[in-house]
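Question (not urgent): is this output format expected?
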Amino acid sequence: MLALVAVTNFSAKKHLVLVAQCYVVAFHTGGAAVHLKVGHHPVAALGPGGFVLLGFLVLWLQQDLITALLGTGSCVVLGLSLSAMLVKRKEGTDALLEDQ
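Got this back:
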């Protein structure tokens, strides 16, 4: 799947690049949320979070700013929703920054 996304990024069709970057944003938003939900240190979410920013920047280069903002925002909501449904919080962690 990631190879298909990588190839699609170089497509001349802007709507395919939009779809590929929305996948990247949703995938990495979910990854950042998983790190936080399972009790990893909050800095661990910066890795996938950087790819969310890169996805936004690629969208902005290919589309206009409004489309990039709306596309990134909707895909962030999608990634957070999927992680909320699919990832169980680590037992004993109620807060995001709880001392262990």
